[in-house]
Amino acid sequence: MMVQGQQHSSSVRLEIHIKVPTMQITSYRCLNIHHLLRTGKVVTRLEYQAYSKLAIKTMTDIIRTAHQSVARSTHHPAPAAVPSIISCAVHHRLGAVPVGEPSIVIAVSSPHRKEAFVACEQILEEVKQKVQIWKREYYEGEKEEEAEWKANSG
Fold it and tell me: Which among 79, 77, 80, 65 is positioned nearest to 112, based on CA atoms?
């Protein structure tokens, strides 16, 4: 789904069982170690489900809000005709996601990196809080039926 405005475009995608590009964006091994220290459990697998139609609408609204609310940084003033965010894309995986692979990818283009980083963080936090996507964690040494559904974090 593409969201088009006067000076920006955005896209939102939800996919089941997609193959992430071979370039590894980040690693969640450190998050798994943090989870182990916090809970005493090792996550072996993740699964995501969504109310897709509503999730796409919610992510589209989040991107629109980011386009409207992320201001140009004071050290890079520009004419009003130049937007602080040019384009955004949010891609969230559904289905089984191996531990260590990204579940969500957010890309933002902007004339300056500060605005792009601010927008990425804002979009990520709002997706985690508001979007109708649920995560199920499977733990080492536990039966599959004991896997826990996690509520959206706030």
Answer: 77
Q: How many CB atoms sit inside 10 A of residue 58's CB?
A: 19
Terminal alpha carbon distance of the chain = 26
Q: To 10 degrees, the CA torsion angle through 75, 26, 105, 137?
A: -130
Cβ distance 88 to 107 under 8 Å?
Answer: yes
Label residues 117-128 b or e (16+ Cβ within 10 Å = b).
ebbbebbeebbe
Q: What is the pLDDT of residues 1-40, one digit of tens each?
A: 344 343 445 566 655 444 444 344 444 444 454 455 556 7
Which of 1, 147, 12, 18 lies closest to 95 in space, CA to CA?
18
| pTM of the model as a whole | 0.73
Give burial (CB, 10 Å; 0-12/13-18/19+) of 12: buried
DSSP, res 1:
-
Is residue 104 a contact partner of residue 131, using CB atoms and an 8 Å limit?
Answer: no
